[in-house]
Write a structure and sequence with these properties.
The chain is of the alpha+beta class. It has two domains: about 325 residues, 2-Layer Sandwich (BirA Bifunctional Protein, domain 2); about 90 residues, Anticodon-binding domain (Rossmann fold, 3-Layer(aba) Sandwich). The chain has 16 helices and 16 strands. The strands form three sheets. The chain has an eight-stranded mixed β-sheet with strand order 1-5-6-11-10-9-7-8. β12, α13 and β13 form a beta-alpha-beta unit. α5 packs across α6, α5 packs antiparallel against α10 and α6 runs antiparallel to α7. The radius of gyration is 28 Å and the shape is elongated. The relative contact order is 0.11.
Length: about 450
């Protein structure tokens, strides 16, 4: 048979078991945090009608979306994110209890130019609360972000906070036209990358005067602690009711965070934070890590109009997306968390063909006792090869039962890390091994 060339599409990845074990560990950790706060799981289809996304996503999203006609001639699209499907499902199920809290962990697809931290297929972990405009909902989402990152090993991160209402007021304060506002948002969002001179140049290229550009930079460059920054922003925007409302919303959320156990240093006001998606209407936030430089690892905010566009009624919503790929990159590079090397805790060895039935029976006894167990499925015999197999997979214990053990109605349990061995009676060995795995003395 001719060999087929083995290749993979650019921007897509294979996850071998060791990598997948860590991803499953992180996803499981996130799910436990989400459920602790009362968020419910759900799933939506991979494919949606293309028109579902029309007018609901940014211009960039439209260009990066995988759209095509299926075999039935329908115009469909692979889901670009998990937010628009959320809005579509809520619109189709008006009887859901409000406020409604859900989480969704699934792959999405974008025709990106592949680069570090950017792939054409990647996973998002979203949590959203639908049907309330209370600042406690915003604060809870920020608390979930903080707890998730801490739970998987992050210790140095910062959640940057701003409000689209203050950004709109900033554009008006500068004297920019409505058409120039979008250019302002895009430029100031790059302040940390291109500096004040770079932002000024971009603003003037967009048609802003030097005076208008300086006004923008004055406001987004405010320094101090959260209270000082908010007070200064409020003074700048005192004549703009919407801008003042945005400042007050941020202050209300920050005041609630200590009640969730979030340390004040974790969340900081950043007047230059804009976020790219057009559907945000209030609080916006991103989580940044200093090392490695992968950009934001989470992002989200309040979007009070998108869900209502499908539901036909006002449904204020706030949520966040935890960027799985960037989070994994940080965890792997900094060795912040370790997943088990193997799904099995025990390898049952097989001395010879005559020992196979008892080895299989013992394996099932261990599994029924709650001990993940693998039995050696290669050719029986050659104990050294079987122990090397356990060692390669990172299985912590091996059970040996040769002729001598069978005569004494015993097994030998070998610690694969230390090499220590102990004999145990064959009857009840599963219970005793389970006690060992729980860190309790085997009786």
């Amino acid at each position: 048979m001719a060999r087929t060339s083995a290749q993979r599409l650019k921007g897509f990845r294979d996850f071998l078991p060791q990598t997948m074990a860590l991803r499953k560990h992180v996803i499981g950790t996130f799910e436990r945090v989400f459920q602790t706060y009362g968020f419910l799981p759900w799933e939506t289809p991979t494919l949606e009608y293309a028109e579902t996304f029309d007018g609901k996503s940014s211009e960039e999203a439209q260009t990066l979306m995988y759209r095509f006609a299926d075999r039935g001639g329908r115009e469909v699209a692979l889901r670009y994110d998990l937010t628009v499907p959320l809005a579509r499902v809520i619109g189709m199920h008006p009887d859901l209890p409000m406020p409604f809290k859900r989480y969704h962990i699934a792959p999405v697809w974008r025709a990106e130019r592949p680069q570090r931290g950017r792939f054409r297929e990647f996973w998002q972990c979203d949590v959203d609360t639908v049907g309330t405009a209370q600042p406690s909902a915003d604060a809870e989402i920020l608390a979930v972000v903080s707890e998730c990152l801490t739970a998987v090993g992050f210790s140095s991160y910062r959640i940057a906070l701003n409000n689209r209402k203050t950004l709109s007021a900033l554009a008006r304060y500068s004297g920019a036209s409505p058409n120039q506002a979008r250019h302002i948002y895009r430029s100031i969002d790059k302040l940390s990358k291109i500096g004040a001179d770079g932002v000024r140049a971009e603003l003037q290229d967009a048609g802003l005067t030097g005076e208008a550009s300086d006004r923008v930079l004055d406001l987004v460059s405010i320094e101090g602690d959260n209270s000082e920054i908010l007070d200064t922003m409020e003074r700048y925007l005192a004549a703009d009711p919407e801008g003042v409302a945005g400042v007050q919303e941020m202050r209300a959320v920050l005041d609630l965070l200590p009640c969730f156990g979030v340390e004040p240093r974790v969340c900081t006001v950043d007047p230059a934070l804009a976020r790219g998606l057009d559907y945000y209407t209030g609080i916006v936030f991103e989580t940044l890590v200093e090392e490695p430089k992968v950009g934001s690892v989470t992002g989200g905010g309040r979007y009070d109009d998108l869900v209502g566009a499908f539901a036909g009624r006002q449904l204020p919503t706030v949520g966040t997306s935890l960027g799985m790929e960037r989070i994994m990159e940080v965890l792997e590079e900094l060795h912040l968390t370790q997943a088990p090397r193997s799904a099995a805790a025990v390898l049952v060895t097989v001395w010879d063909e005559t020992a196979l039935p008892d080895a299989l029976t013992l394996s099932m006894e261990l599994r029924l006792a709650g001990v993940p167990t693998e039995i050696y499925l290669g050719t029986p015999g050659n104990l050294r090869r079987q122990l090397a197999h356990a060692d390669k997979l990172g299985i912590p214990l091996a059970i040996l039962a040769g002729p001598d053990e069978r005569v004494r109605d015993e097994v030998t349990v070998r610690d694969m890390v230390t090499g220590e061995q102990r004999a145990m009676g064959r009857q009840g060995v599963a219970v005793r091994v389970h006690a060992m795995m729980q860190g309790m003395p085997a009786q």
